[in-house]
Amino acid sequence: MTKARIEARFAQLKAENRAAFVPYVMAGDPDAATAAAILKALPAAGADLIEVGFPFSDPMAEGPPIQRAAQRALANGMTLTGVLAAVAQFRKGDDTTPVILMGYANPLIGWGFEAFARDMAASGVDGLIVVDIPPEEADPLADALDAENLSLIRLATPTTDDARLPIVVRRTSGFVYYVSVAGVTGVKEADADIVAPHVARVRAASGLPVAVGFGIKTPERAGAIAKVADAVVVGSALVDEVASALAMNESVTGRVLSKVESLAKAVRSARVESLTV
Amino acid sequence: MNAPLTPNDYTAYPDAAGRFGDYGGRYVPETLMPLVHDLDAAYSAAKVDPAFQGELKSFLKHYVGRPSPLYFAERLTKHYGGAKIYLKREELNHTGAHKINNCMGQILLAMKMGKTRIIAETGAGQHGVATATVCARFGLPCVVYMGAVDVERQKANVFRMNLLGAKVEPVTSGSATLKDAMNEALRDWVTNVHDTYYLIGSAAGPHPYPVMVRDFQAVIGIETKQQVLEMEGRLPDALVACVGGGSNAIGLFHPFLNDESVKLFGVEASGDGLDTDRHAAAINGGRPGVLHGNKTYLLQDKDGQINEAHSISAGLDYPGIGPEHSWLHDVGRAKYLTCTDAEALAAFQLLAELEGILPAIESAHALARLPEICAEVGKDGIVVLNLSGRGDKDVETVAAHLGRQI
User: Fold this and answer.
1) Per the CB 3.0–4.6 Å rule, which of A116, B58, B311, B383 could disulfide with B269?
2) B30, B193, B306 ranked by CB distance to A134: nearest
3) Under a CB-based contact definition with an 8 Å cutoff, are residues B259 and B333 in contact?
4) Coil, strand, or helix at residue B64?
5) Distance from CA of B298 to the nearest CA of A (A)
6) In this predicted model, what pLDDT tens digit does every residue of B62-91 receive, in sequence order?
7) Are B30 and A179 in contact (CB < 8 Å)?
8) What are the contacts of B222-231 at 24+ separation with CB within 8 A?
């Protein structure tokens, strides 16, 4: 079932000639109830796929915004069990929007890859990105996900050259995530002109849709990337809305969803505008 | 899980993928994988390059001051009344600890690779000082990441690094200690992939760091073997060293791994005690997981979140341990004991009084286990302890714990 959900969504988007908008939200940020309300409302706000971060104490590829989001979630008691429960709850109201979990290896190792894959499938999760499990270390995880027909989504980066690209896309499915900048999340800014040839390169090597993320903060930039990529991922800018709302004592849900709407609108209209220009 | 097989040749590890049994590996983000492969290739070439090894040897002799003496601690031996105790005097190296052995090797490699900027993490500041030292010597810019908590409690070392021209970046993320400094150094490396060399201070991190750092520190064990054979005409019965990440211990142990008559003892810091949540004993109080690029024993909670380590010794205050130690523990080749803050303090004072040597508080953890180890090998036995660093840096800490003003 689950790989099918991602494939069906990208087929639909292709028919509509538009890129996917993929918000990244941290599970349990700032607390389980608020995060669940945000998750539930994301598809209506314009999310085509959803990445749900599972918090880790030592996220080595994240910039300050997502580090702090993880700390907020952990401080309020979020666990991997809670993450799966949140997705299962979401699935009760939405059976078509793909959900991808994204995080780090250590919490999964304690759970066990086979058991986690089974529990992911049972909760309605479609795919998994593990930032610190590169292809060289991924076979046990890939075996476990294959057994449940779940997608292992790989990261390709500016340092992934043509010689390495086949290694990166081997055993990946659903889509490939192109990290647009060499750096941590939410610091440098992605440049559509620089990203475009890499997206083409990764698409050719994988035969899969290519999502672009890391360094996309504004609707303008999201729109520019949407012209060259199959999906646009925004994470740090959304968790920053959580932080700002908490600091200003405003509605977290309201601020995050409003940002999602403006980003989704930019992504949806990107190719339409480019046709009329 | 099946018990791991006892290997025929302990020195044949790690395998090509950087595995010591189930431990080690390369768990880093994709951005870093090409760099880790480049480093592996560069180090493999340097390892067998006589010119590189000759240059390293020359700097170790004339700049670091090697070989370090193997010293018979006569009064300490008498005090315990058991085996003969020898101290491998790594504290006499330039900068006062074993850390410089590895820094010298890696800086030469970094220059060979054409890297122009060096970054490092540090806990107490010893590795930071050693890195800043070699960067000054070779004229390379150096950024040292240090937890904000450690910056505060190790002000002298921060100033020392500044004098040597290094920039110290206080890290406020997470718990603001060594593990967070390592996270931040990795984040810097991911961001500055083209010109930057990450000089890791312990035998941990993604392959090839654990094997490379071990090889650069193995000079300790190689010299020890030669020296003990000259002085005693036979191999020692036991080796003992403190273990945080474990570079001084693996450097001493490695040349003896296939000498099965030589017992190996690592000593982890158990802080307030193993039965409390304030310790740094990854093997004795943790379980395997993945952090900072390698699979190894880690302090973590039931959900796989990393726990903060606690030790009087900033150099042992780390929630993990080098992967080769995890493997040596599992296969039973080395035994990992523990030592509390209080025991380390007592051992610190004892060595000062009996031998006129202030040991690093890290090394004092190894000293504290000498009574049991000397008793185990018996009166005719020979024990070599790695005195990995000098204790001048710890005088304030020790005074504070003894309730004395200086």
Assistant:
1) B311
2) B30
3) no
4) helix
5) 10
6) 999 999 999 999 999 999 999 999 999 999
7) yes
8) B222/B255, B223/B66, B223/B67, B223/B68, B223/B70, B223/B88, B224/B70, B224/B88, B224/B252, B224/B255, B224/B384, B225/B255, B225/B256, B227/B67, B227/B69, B227/B70, B228/B70, B228/B86, B228/B382, B228/B384, B231/B70, B231/B72, B231/B86
